[in-house]
Each structure stands twice: as C-alpha cells, then as structure tokens.
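Worked Example 4.2. Consider the chain below.
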Amino acid sequence: MTKVSIETEGSSSGADRRRFERAEVVVQIEYSTVDDLFSEFTRDINEGGLFIETEDPLALGTTVDLQFLLPGSSDPIKAAAEIVRLSDGSGGEPVGMAVEFDSLPADARKRINELIRSMRSRS
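Applying the procedure from the previous section yields the following structure tokens:
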C-alpha cells in the first residue's frame, strides 16, 4: 500500500525534520558500497533521499550507489547517496537507515516529485 506523508522543515522530532514532501512507498532497492552489493526495500522516498529497511544498516557517513524503480516505471533511477541517520526500531520506525542523495539527476527528481503529487492527489 502506498500513501503520502507531508513533512516540513519546521517539524520538531528527528524523524520529522524533512525538507521535502515524502511518499510512503515500498519498492525494492539495490545499493552498493565499494566492497558489497545489497538488496532491500524502501520505506519512503522524497527528492532528498529515502529510508531503507534493513536489519544490518551501514555506518553513518557511508557512501552508496543506489538503483531502484518507481511504481509504474521501467526506467531505473540511479543515484549516489550517503547514510545520514540510523534507526534501531524504537519509536515505531522500522530498523534501517536514511540516505540522502548526493547526486540525483534532474529527470529522476522530477519523476519522484510526480509520484508524490500523484499519491497526494489520491489521498
């Protein structure tokens, strides 16, 4: 199931300090470091980054290369990102890690924003 959660920069808790609207959507994501390749699922996505559900999060500051498909798309999004937050599962959030895009092509940013707008209009 997909739904949209709107977060603003002025929110107070750590999980709510997002600068961009986010879509709560589950998609498979492949990510790699210099040494390893992983396949997990996202929890949410926005034009600034995404959350990866994983029992084995990487260390803060780790750089990863990402590849994933948005719902309804056959053209993968590829981006470099950095691990910026870890979740241990407390507070109702799943175990995993938040990544912030270091480089996101303009067409990928546009596709993510279109997904968020589309999901918001349905709710």
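Residues 1-18 have pLDDT under 50 and may be disordered. Residues 114 and 120 are 10 Å apart (CA to CA). Compare this with Example 4.1 before moving on.
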